[in-house]
Amino acid sequence: MSKTLDKPLPPGSVIGILGGGQLGRMAALAAAPLGYRVHIYTPKDDDPALQVCDGRHIAPYEDEVALAAFAEAVDVVTYEFENVPHKTADFLAGRVTVRPDPKVLKICQNRLREKDFLASIEVPTTRYAEVTGPEGVARALRDLGSPCVLKTSEGGYDGKGQTLVKTGDDLESAWKRMIGAVDGGPGILEAYVDFSAEISVIAARSAEGQVTNYVTVENHHRDHILDQTIVPARVSEQISGKAEAIARHIVEGIRLVGLIGVEMFVTAAGQVLVNEIAPRPHNSGHWTIDACVTSQFEQFIRAVAGLPLGAVERHSDAVMRNLLGDECESWAEILSDPAARLHLYGKSEARPGRKMGHVTRLSPRNWTL
After folding, report:
1. DSSP per residue over 308-359, as a string?
2. pLDDT given at position 34
3. How far apart are alpha carbons 290 and 300 in whole angstroms?
4. Tens of pLDDT, residues 72-81
5. Exposure letters 75-87 (e unless 16+ CB within 10 A, then b)
6. Within its chain, how far is the Cα of 59 from the centroid?
7. What is the pLDDT of residue 223?
8. Mean residue pLDDT across the chain
9. What count of Cα atoms within 13 Å lies in the side-chain half-sphere of residue 38?
10. How far apart are CA 149 and CA 310, in angstroms?
11. Alpha carbon distance 262, 244 (integer Å)
């Protein structure tokens, strides 16, 4: 049985975070001004969040002895990425409050469960089918139409574990590429969306049921990795309003306590289709650190700690760009631009395609709170 906090955490409490990547790092930095300490649990001893935390456990996610000790050391647990084994979250939930609930994690870390959940609450997505091998891909291609996107049902990110397939392709080879990227199956085949824009919305829900969302933003990818986020999205008010309503509907439907990123496609016909949801801070929300009253990371901490949610109004429009690989070496040039806000993640090795930091350029706007 899961434990539940019945009141907000007072300053001085310890927030445990599963995962030690850049999202955990920025969450820890946001927790400190609110008076909270952060304890990181990660299998990796060089994760960037370890540079800014108060406590740490470095152990496999399956190590129940280490997990029990971690639970004793913290007052609430959350996670900074959704590929934490849900059994880990379930184990911890019997000892300490876990937010979002492990049931949310279980839904969001599996693309089939995620799509089925969205369908159950009448959220529009592209058409999809479960596939367990090349023969199933061939059958589903006939039903869904060509081309489609073949994805692993679990794991994979930034384009890993997915490939475009069409009628006549070598599906045996495509299947091997898909499962080889994440060492497993089954898969999901999704109808290809000929979109006019990729957008996303970050929304939060508190333990008391308060719901907020940030403005709809526009995303551009390079080699399947988010390259640039433009704030606000260059779409109509009708489209942005529809996207924000969908995000609020999802956080209510999934009974979230925490923060969620909702990635969506806009079709030429004006449909808004949900692509994926992530129950933690999202790359397309990094601009909020510098442009909003309350950043997505502070909002995340507020929700997890049981506090009222903060104001989401922005004082500036913004363009956020990821620094991938050795692009982080341009730090001196970036700092010479007075409109730029640089965030480096403290990672030791700048590999191609690795997110080493981000830079946000602000355009102040007339606003009132």
Report:
1. PPPP--BSEEEEEEEEEGGGGGGHHHHHT-TTEEEEE---S---TT-EEEEE
2. 98
3. 16
4. 999 999 999 9
5. bbbbbbbbbbebe
6. 23
7. 87
8. 94
9. 29
10. 38
11. 9
Find tokens 């995340």 and name the residue.
300
Place of tokens 């089939």: 112
126-145, pLDDT tens digit by residue?
999 999 899 999 999 999 99
CA distance 47 to 364: 34
Which run of H or of E encompasses 349? none
- pLDDT confidence bin for 169, thresholds 50/70/90: confident
Q: How far apart are CA 284 and CA 280, in angstroms?
A: 12
Q: Which two tokens stand for residue 152?
A: 């692993």
User: Residue 236 and residue 259: Cα distance in Å, rounded?
Assistant: 25
One-letter amino acid for residue 125 of the chain: T
Beta bridge partners of residue 15, listed in sequence order: 38, 76
Q: How many CB atoms lie within 10 A of CB 134?
A: 18
| pTM higher than the cut 0.85 | yes
For residue 4, give the H/E element and its range.
none
Strands 55-58 and 148-152, sheet pairing: unpaired
Backbone phi, psi, residue 253, to 5°: -65, -35
The DSSP annotation for 157-225 comes to -TTTTEEEE-TTS-HHHHHHHHHHHHT---EEEEE---EEEEEEEEEEE-TT--EEEPPPEEEEEETTE
Q: Are 295 and 301 in contact (CB under 8 A)?
A: no
Amino acid identity of residue 286, one-letter, is H
Token duo for residue 200? 């996303």
- pLDDT of 183 above 70: no
